[in-house]
Design goal:
- The protein has three helices and no strands.
- α1 crosses α2 and α1 crosses α3.
- 52% of the residues lie in helices and 0% in strands.
- 16% of the residues are buried.
Amino acid sequence: MNLSSQETATRIQSLLCPLIGNPAAVDRRQDLAELGLTSMQMVNLMLSIEAEFDLIIPPTKLVPANFRTIENIETLVRELRH
């Protein structure tokens, strides 16, 4: 399935909801760690992304930069789905 950037962002935001409350109010370029996301929550987010988008994130992609913002996560998902 080929998702638009907006659809991907919306799905990522829905995964963030239990972690940060109202992700819709978060700018796509806002640093998630600055919002209080802990390292354990980041791991949970990564696992949720794998399940939501039916993909496996390879160890080489498990770097903080890929999970810093919604936009970075979006880019990672797009790369892994193609």
